[in-house]
């Protein structure tokens, strides 16, 4: 069974004690930390603060599974690599294994793919030295697994992988089996969520919307994916959404239902097919 986590995007403004409380409401032993102003982690935070965050979560038995940055590697700006380097150093300080990045570049489509490849290639050596992966999410101008895979393959570094956000490839018309086929070798982190339709992205409790979560999880099982599955509940953008505690309950129910059958020997005295 994959280990479960949630993003602090679902509890905007909450302190670490609330994050720990939410984790303890169900079988979550990891947290994806949103890196933004007003959050427990933010760009440029002092090392002493980062150490305190890491110590607090470690004492609570929680792993930091990803630092969710807002770096856009295809943006038409001169400081992208420097910005990404700062996030990589912060992740290393926190003990996070990866930094999530976006593609971006909506304001300058020409050369967008090449800028993403160049910036990720420039950041990869530092990422490798720090032991922190850079993960390009299926998001914004890079919605599909096909587009993300094209960039990562061109970079060609083991320090660069992907985040599969389950909603975005699907709403762009890419089926879960297609996403898994093209992105499979690079999937290092998975975000699950649910929405009503491909054009209505307001959060819906997992299992109550239209996203083919069963097909996504089936593909992860087929790939032998052993990484984290994280609930990304977008309450920061949709404050009218249900609380994260309710969303986590639904998230666990979905994953419990879709858990693969045990492969080991059946308990003594009971037939193996039960």
From TrEMBL:
Q: Tell me where in this chain the Xylose isomerase-like TIM barrel domain is found.
A: 23-248
Which residues are listed as membrane-spanning? none
Coiled-coil features, chain-numbered ranges? none
SUPFAM superfamilies per the UniProt record, alphabetical: Xylose isomerase-like (SSF51658)
Q: Which Pfam families does the record cross-reference, listed alphabetically?
A: AP_endonuc_2
UniProt keyword terms in alphabetical order: Isomerase
Q: Which Gene3D superfamilies match?
A: Divalent-metal-dependent TIM barrel enzymes
Q: Which GO molecular function annotations are given, in alphabetical order?
A: isomerase activity
Which InterPro entries does the entry mention?
Answer: IolE/XylAMocC-like, Xyl_isomerase-like_sf, Xyl_isomerase-like_TIM-brl
Question: Any idea what this protein is called?
Answer: Sugar phosphate isomerase/epimerase
- Taxonomic source organism: Streptomyces endocoffeicus
Taxonomic lineage: Bacteria, Bacillati, Actinomycetota, Actinomycetes, Kitasatosporales
């Amino acid at each position: 069974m994959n280990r479960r986590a949630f993003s602090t995007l679902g509890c905007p403004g909450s302190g670490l004690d609330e994050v720990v409380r939410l984790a303890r409401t169900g079988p979550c032993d990891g947290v994806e930390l949103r890196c933004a102003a007003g959050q427990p982690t933010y760009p440029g935070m002092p090392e002493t603060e980062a150490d305190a965050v890491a110590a607090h979560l470690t004492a609570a038995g929680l792993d930091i599974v990803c630092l969710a940055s807002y770096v856009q590697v295809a943006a038409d700006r001169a400081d992208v690599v420097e910005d990404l380097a700062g996030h990589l150093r912060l992740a290393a300080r926190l003990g996070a294994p990866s930094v999530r990045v976006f593609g971006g570049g909506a304001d300058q489509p020409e050369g967008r793919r090449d800028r993403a490849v160049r910036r990720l290639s420039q950041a990869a050596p530092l990422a490798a030295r720090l032991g922190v992966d850079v993960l390009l999410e299926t998001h914004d101008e890079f919605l599909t697994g096909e587009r993300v895979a094209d960039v990562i393959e061109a970079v060609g570094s083991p320090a660069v992988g992907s985040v599969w956000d389950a909603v975005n490839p699907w709403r762009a018309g890419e089926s879960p089996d297609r996403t898994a086929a093209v992105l499979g070798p690079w999937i290092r982190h998975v975000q699950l969520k649910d929405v009503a339709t491909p054009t209505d992205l307001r959060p819906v409790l997992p299992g109550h919307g239209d996203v083919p979560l069963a097909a996504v999880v089936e593909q992860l099982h087929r790939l032998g994916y052993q990484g984290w599955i994280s609930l990304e509940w977008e309450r920061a953008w949709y404050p009218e959404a249900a609380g994260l505690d309710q969303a986590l309950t639904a998230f666990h129910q979905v994953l419990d239902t879709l858990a693969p059958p045990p492969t080991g020997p059946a308990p003594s005295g009971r037939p193996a097919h039960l």
